[in-house]
Amino acid sequence: MNWNCGAYLLLIICLIFIVYSGEYYTTNILEPDRIGTAWMIKKFVDTSAVFHFVGKDSVVKDAVSFDTPSSKYRRYPRFSSTMSVVRFHNIKNENAGKLAEVIDEIELDFWGAGKPERAVKFQTEIMKIVEDNCDLHLTLKKAFEYIKHWLKE
Predict the structure, then answer these.
(1) Where are the beta strands (DSSP E) in the chain?
(2) DSSP state for residue 31 in the 8-state scheme
(3) What pLDDT score does 15 carry?
């Protein structure tokens, strides 16, 4: 391999590392859609994902934001941030669909007037986990455990 090919290969490897850091961030207020988005990323997009929680206007350099207004994984008028991960990556998985649907039921009917019972129960349980834990990483871990259990019901 000549020098030019080696330099190009090194450049490509560096660009892949920069673009694909495995680091994700969101705001430090956990709620069902933010938790569902993190679960979807960890389960179907990047199994080695590391999550950071920051203040509202903060940014983590070289990390992918989610569930923030400028994120590729964000809430839209007709679907949740969790569903945006499913759509963006064209995830065809029954559990992914089930979780994204219940999060949509929570997000799109926020005040609860027509929210199905399963969405009310899911939201209540997730928010109990959030309220019972002050460590955001531990909260996320416990919420992931709850989601795993909930998907088996």
Answers:
(1) 23-27, 50-54, 64-65
(2) -
(3) 44
